[in-house]
From TrEMBL:
The keyword Transferase applies. Residues 46-294 form the Sulfotransferase domain. It comes from Leptobrachium leishanense. One of its GO terms (molecular function) is sulfotransferase activity. This is Sulfotransferase. Transmembrane segments: none annotated.
Length: 307
């Protein structure tokens, strides 16, 4: 298996990766854009499983759930590698390390694959091979707050500036991976054309067992009730926060600075209320209502149970 080499990251200046460039109407990291042909020509396999989200919407959580399912609930098997080697990041490209495509080309089947790509940028071979995709959508406000903190941690992302400034860019789609609105709606509109299981982060927080059973059914897997409970426990926020195979503590601090904020920060629904001012919330709601007008996709911005 070809592994992503975190040691080589120490020799690379992360600020050299901060630049974004447009790709078919979506802002992306310049390394991804410059090497786009590699992603575009990626060859899917029929038994691949793709885990797709807009950034900061539960990607690592769902990746660990799916890997746990494929490992039949064996926690030790899930500790065999860091999550970014167990579930390679399709479009990732960092100089000096294997790209996501290179990792996947030599990975044994069935492959689990992470991506943040909007649906119109997904490689055609994924649809040609009728692959399964699990999409997780999270409400726009919590994603905005989480993405803001993530920008402050990841030195390869542009400086977000103050929250006001970041929210303005976020709502305009002037951030990596573009518009949250286009992303969640694009996947929602195509969910019945392809084999897509569309889940909501808030539902997963509210009742993880119920949602994991949906994933099992979608993957055509059977598992005992006790094993499902084991997956619920293993993928709880506190367990994952303390698990070095998923909490990204293996990434050098020069790239992912967790000294003030951890990668697994809060993992709750409704945290935006702790950060938005009244004015920011009013402006955000106005823009949200404008961009979601006429859509039949609805989100909850808070839930009663946070676990």
């Amino acid at each position: 298996m070809l592994r992503f080499d975190t040691d080589k990251m120490k020799d690379l200046d992360p600020t050299s990766l901060q630049h974004l460039a447009p790709l078919h109407g979506v802002l992306m990291g310049k390394e991804i854009v410059e090497n786009w042909k590699e992603v575009e020509q990626f060859q899917a396999r029929p038994d691949d499983v793709y885990i797709s989200t807009y950034p900061k919407a539960g990607t690592t959580w769902m990746s660990e759930i799916v890997d746990m399912i494929f490992c039949e609930g064996d926690q030790e098997k899930c500790r065999r590698e860091a999550i970014y080697n167990r579930v390679p990041y399709l479009e990732l490209r960092i100089p000096g390390s294997p790209s996501g495509v290179e990792q996947l080309q030599v990975a044994p089947s069935p492959r689990l694959v992470k991506t943040h790509l909007p649906i119109h940028l997904m490689p055609e071979s994924i649809w040609d091979k009728n692959c399964k995709v699990i999409y997780v959508a999270r409400n726009a406000k919590d994603v905005a707050v989480s993405y803001f903190f993530f920008h402050n941690m990841v030195k390869a992302l542009p400086d977000p500036g103050p929250l006001d400034h970041f929210l303005n860019n976020y709502n305009k789609g002037n951030v990596s991976y573009g518009s949250w609105y286009d992303h969640v709606n694009g996947w929602w509109e195509k969910r019945q054309e392809y084999r897509i299981l569309y889940l909501f982060y808030e539902d997963l927080k509210e009742n993880p067992k119920r949602e994991i059973l949906k994933v099992l059914h979608f993957l055509e897997k059977e598992m005992s009730d006790s094993l499902v409970d084991k997956i619920v426990q293993h993928t709880s926020f506190q367990e994952m926060k303390n698990n070095e195979m998923v909490n990204y503590k293996t990434i050098p601090n020069e790239f992912l600075d967790q000294s003030e904020t951890s990668f697994m920060r809060k993992g709750i629904a409704g945290d935006w209320k702790n950060h938005f001012t009244v004015a920011q919330n009013e402006i955000f709601d106005e823009e949200y209502n404008r961009q979601m007008a006429g859509k039949n996709l609805h989100f909850r911005t808070e839930i009663n149970v946070n676990i």
